[in-house]
Amino acid sequence: MMDLLARRLSLVAEVGEIKSKYALPIYAPDREAAMLASRRKEAESQGIPPDLIEDILRRTMRESYASENSSGFKCLNPELRSIVVIGGHGRFGKLFCKLFYLSGYNVKILNNHDWDCAGEILIDAGMVVVAVPINQTEAIIRQLCNLPDDCILADLTSIKSAPLQAMLESHAGPVIGLHPMFGHEITSLAKQVIVYCDGRNPETYQWLLAQFRIWGANLHRISAIEHDQDMTLIQALRHFTSFVYGLHLAAENPNLSQLTALSYPTYRLELTMVGRLFAQDAQLYADIIMSSSQNINMIKRFHRRFGDAIKFLDNQDTEGFIATFGLVKNWFGDFAPLFLKESQNLLQQAHDTAQCD
After folding, report:
1. Residue 112 CB neighbour total at 10 angstroms
2. For residues 93 and 87, is the Cβ–Cβ distance under 8 A?
3. 204 with 261, same domain?
4. CA proximity to 160, closest of 145, 143, 176, 171
5. In total, how many domains does the chain have?
6. Which GO terms are recorded in the biological process aspect for this UniProt protein (predicted)?
C-alpha cells in the first residue's frame, strides 16, 4: 500500500503541471464525486466496506491537493502590475503571498516598518491586499488614498461592512471585500470557502475570482451587510460561548486529563473545539466578538434565551422542554438528519485519533 501511495504522489506532480498549463482548478467536485462513487461500487462488489475505501481515498486526495500546490498555478492576469500585500509577513498575508507567487505574479510586501517607503512600493501596484489585524484594518485602508486609478483594492478581514466602506471612500478605483473562511494553517485551498463582497467595478477583478477557483476555492458572493449578519452567528456568538464555556471549566477546575479520558467522542470533540480557541490569539477573538453592537446585541439575546431555558429546570418542566425541543427540531427540518450524518463522520474521526493511556 505504501508503494502504491508513493507512486500516486509522484504522479500528482505531473498532474499539477498539466492543470497549471491548462488553467484547471486543483479541485474538480464532479470528478471527485464520480471517482468516489465508482470506487465505492467496486469495493462493494469485492466485499470491502465502501466507507473504508472512501475514507482512504478522501485522505489520499487531501494530500494530493496539498502536493499539487508545489507545481504552481496558471497565471490568469500576466499583465498585472505588482501585487502588494500589506501585512504580508502575517499569517494570512504569508499564505496569499505564497499562492500569488506560485501563480507567477510579482508580489511585494508592505509591513509596519516599511511605511517610510510605502509610496515607492505602492506607486506601480496593480492590486493591493490588506491583510492586517481587524483593529488596524480601517486605519491602514484610510492611508491608501493615492493608489493608481486602476489598482484593485481588497481586504481579507472577517468583518466586511466597515472595511468595504473605508475602501470605497479611500480609493476611486476597483474595490472588493474578501473573507477567507479558513485558518492560516491550511496546506491547500481545495474545498475551502472564500466569501467576496462586490465593491466597485467588479468586471475588473473577475480574473482574481477565477484565480481563486484555480487554487481550488469555492466562492460565495454576498453583500457586506448579509455577511456581517451571518458572521454574528457563525463567529461572534460561537466564539463567545466557547470563551464562556472555557471560563466555566477553569473556574470549576476539573481534572482535565480525566475529563478527556472519560469523554465520549461527542463531548471530546466539543472540548477540543473549546480548547482550540484558547490555543490562539486572544486579541483576534476580542476584535471579532466586539467588532459591532450587532454582535453584542445578539449575544445578549442568547443570554436571555439561556435564562428562559433555565426555567424548564427550575420548574422541572419536562413537558415544556420536550415541546420546545420539538419546535426547534421542526425549525431545523431536513438539516437535522443531515447534520446528524455529518457529525457521525466527525465523531468517528475523533474516535480514531483518540489516544488511550
Report:
1. 11
2. yes
3. no
4. 176
5. 3
6. chorismate metabolic process; tyrosine biosynthetic process
> How far is the C-alpha of 33 from the C-alpha of 39, rounded, in Å?
10
Q: Cell numbers of 198, please?
A: 462586490
93 shares its domain with 189: yes
Give me the residue label for grid cell 466557547.
Answer: 242
Please identify, among 207, 222, 237, the residue that sits at the C-terminal boundary of a domain.
Answer: 222
DSSP letter for each residue of 112-165:
GGGGGGHHHHHTTEEEEEE-S-HHHHHHHHTT--S--TT-EEEE--S--HHHHH
- The per-residue pLDDT for range 47-90, each reduced to its tens digit, is 888 888 888 888 777 777 666 666 678 899 999 999 999 999 99
> Which one of 42, 69, 96 terminates a domain?
69
Is 130 part of a structural domain of the chain?
Answer: yes
Is it the case that residue 17 has pLDDT exceeding 80? no
What contacts 349, CB < 8 A, 6 or more positions away? none
Can you give the residue range of the structural domain that contains 194?
82-222
Q: Which residues contact 319 (CB under 8 A, 6 or more apart)?
A: none
Place of cell 451571518: 230
> The CATH number of the domain where 267 resides is what?
1.10.3660.10
Q: In what order do the strands lie in the sheet with 152-155?
A: 107-110, 82-86, 125-130, 152-155, 175-180, 193-200, 218-221
Domain match, 101 and 187 both: yes
Amino acid at 195: V
d(CA 279, CA 259): 18
